[in-house]
Amino acid sequence: MGILSSISAKITAMRQRHKDKKEFLSNILRAAEDGAFTDEEMNQLQSQFKELELTQDDLKGIRATAYSAALRAAKSDGKITAEEEAELDKIQEFLKIPGTEIAKSRKELARLRLITEIQNGNPPTITIQNVVLQKKEIAHWSEPGSILEERVVKRRYEGGSQGVSFRIAKGISYRVGGHRGHIVTDTAVLPVSTGELIITNRRIIFRGDNKSFNLRLDKLLELNFYSDGVRLTDDKGKPRVVQFSDPENRDVVGATLSYAINNFSE
Q1: Are the CB atoms for 260 and 199 separated by under 8 Å?
Q2: Cα distances (Å, whole numbers) of residue 237 to 32, 53, 223, 243, 252
Q3: pLDDT digits (tens, 9 = 90+) for 68-113
Q4: For strand 182-200 and strand 139-158, is the pairing parallel, antiparallel, or unpaired?
Q5: CB count in 10 Å sphere of residue 249
């Protein structure tokens, strides 16, 4: 075989290997899109991996994408079951994905698993320091946040005119065209106390550095959630707005409050 033929053969082989590798990586993504790897899929992928003489470095960049695709499929109904979590763990183990590569996805998985457990009637039980709980009262969740209140941030004078002053004699002047202005007050919603929102099976407690409140669940008249917080209105019509430090935990707080309210008892 001549030099040119040898070079041509090597180039052809390289192109074929690149094509095969690309197909292999596509197969991983397709398998992950179902949220699980079947035994047959794992056997086929393992066989292709060996035939192509690939290494873990060849999988960098695609394995985290595959895990994210599997997580997306698993959470499509808004929940993650124990079985789905086990399948995701199997995918991570099979692809040998380091936790650092999928830290964000694992955090999302843990959050969804927690929400699912709460919705299934299994809320967490936590210990809160320096909070006196009532008899048979159980703390379920603590979320860092701040109380927000409307505050005056600026006052200014607008619309006034002194008119025109004419001097008509020594020490005497005459003013015409003047009218009174008015004071304009600018307000803004600001954090007035930083602390934690605590949810128990009987109360909603906010323990803050400047302000705190204590609201029994049976005295809660209205509950409104926002993208980063919650508005709690008691039976006297007094609203309290709490902004969460981590907006991603809004659904966890919502699920916990829903459970506590629906299972409230004296």
Answers
A1: yes
A2: 50, 69, 12, 19, 25
A3: 999 999 999 888 999 999 999 999 999 999 999 999 999 999 999 9
A4: antiparallel
A5: 19
The pLDDT, as a whole number, for residue 180 is 63
Whether 66 maps to a domain, the answer reads yes
Cα dist from 254 to 33, 42, 80, 82, 224, whole Å: 29, 38, 17, 21, 10
171 phi-psi bin (left φ>0, alpha ψ -120 to 50, beta other): left
Residues 6+ apart with CB under 8 A from 249: 111, 143
DSSP single-letter state for residue 249: G
Do residues 11 and 40 share a domain?
yes
Report the sign of the C-alpha dihedral through residues 136, 140, 143, 146, in that order. negative
- The answer to whether residue 205 sits within a structural domain is yes
Can you tell me which residue has the tokens 């005295």?
219
DSSP 8-state class, residue 124: -
Identify the domain containing residue 202 by its residue range.
Answer: 139-153+185-262
